[in-house]
Specification:
mainly alpha
Length: 356
């Protein structure tokens, strides 16, 4: 028997190296692939729809789905961006007052317990913010400054934003053809097992990705409503951000919770008044972990929390934002492969010690 590394392993290693080297330019393709995977079932349904003599083509179905996705994105931007801009302007105007209240409350406590004081000129800070708060909403000015100082970075970002729908269109239009070609390249003696593993991975990813999107939207509504009901002034942006960051376990809700606590301290001024904020996030985590996640996602990934944290950090390090998005789905797919490999190992002669 020749002890040679199979060609497939060498090819897989080369693909991994190539993906790592091309990481900086893969982000729009990875995002488009995620969106294509999520939207493909809807394209298939529209493609299969038939009314009398009319039956849309795959290209038309793809175009309709992309238009719907862009419409939803624009609707979110039209609703959320002006509201968040208004909240930012409100914060910029009220921040000096909040800082003055903090100074009046914190200074005596620091003097009593540590014999020190805050050496910050709040009056000067208040005057500066009062004179220049209008610039917080001057989007055109910020864009002009970005173009002048980081023109190539902005151009690259815009190019990626344009590239994503283009790549998405081609992926959705040819999705079934691409899958068939990949299946055709699989060795015939491995096609059965490969199809079984691919079907299991598809089931895990489908439930995770589509379920996670639903959970994110529902939690955005929950946090926004809950924070609004307790009177938090920045309920909408913090609530939406807390819900949408739910795709990053532990870290996402931690960021949202930290922003809510900071906003509550600035608005209410005392720790006692932060109890409603704690209750909203506590109930939110309870609802998400006990009801929404088991119902919409289930325990399909089955990854240890340490593995989840490592996967998120590794994905972010290798591929940036797209890597964070892909970390858990890819980890789930790898976990499926490991489960099948473990089953084969436990049945192998090497493990059982059998010579036959």
């Amino acid at each position: 028997m020749q002890n040679r590394i199979p060609a497939c392993w060498i090819a897989a290693l080369l693909v991994c190296v190539l993906v790592y080297l091309l990481g900086p330019i893969l982000t729009p393709f990875l995002i488009a692939a995620i969106l294509a995977y999520i939207a493909n079932p809807l394209v298939n349904r529209i493609d299969a729809f038939q009314f009398k003599q009319f039956s849309p083509s795959r290209t038309l179905a793809t175009f309709i789905v992309i238009i719907l996705m862009l419409a939803v994105l624009m609707l979110i931007l039209v609703i959320v961006v002006p509201l968040m801009q208004q909240e930012i302007l409100m914060l910029s105007k009220k921040l000096p007052t909040y800082l003055g209240a903090i100074k009046s409350n914190v200074d005596p406590w620091l003097q009593t317990h540590f014999d020190m004081a805050l050496n910050v000129d709040f009056s000067q800070l208040q005057q500066m913010l009062t004179e220049h708060w209008q610039t917080a909403g001057n989007v055109a000015k910020h864009i002009a400054l970005s173009i002048s100082s980081q023109g190539m970075t902005l151009i690259g970002w815009l190019a990626n934003m344009i590239l994503i729908p283009v790549v998405l269109f081609y992926l959705l239009a040819d999705w079934n053809i691409i899958i068939d070609k990949i299946r055709h390249l699989v060795p015939r003696n491995l096609i059965g097992k490969t199809s079984e593993i691919a079907a299991e991975i598809d089931s895990v990813l489908a439930e995770f990705l589509r379920g996670q999107l639903t959970v994110m939207l529902l939690m955005s509504v929950f946090y926004s409503t809950g924070l609004w009901m307790i009177g938090l002034e920045f309920a909408l942006p913090i609530g939406v951000l807390s819900g949408l960051l739910g795709f990053v376990p532990y870290i996402g809700v931690g960021i949202g919770f930290g922003l809510a606590i900071l906003s509550g301290l600035l608005q209410f001024g005392t720790l006692h008044d932060l109890m409603p904020v704690l209750i909203v996030f506590g109930v939110g985590q309870l609802v998400e972990s006990v009801a929404l996640t088991p119902w919409l996602i289930g325990d399909r990934i089955g990854l240890h929390p340490l593995v989840v944290i490592f996967a998120l950090m590794a994905g972010g390090q290798l591929f940036g934002f797209a890597g964070v998005l892909l970390a858990l789905p890819v980890s789930a797919a790898i976990a499926v492969g490991f489960r099948h490999a473990k089953t084969q190992y436990l049945q192998s002669h090497f493990y059982t010690g059998s010579s036959h």
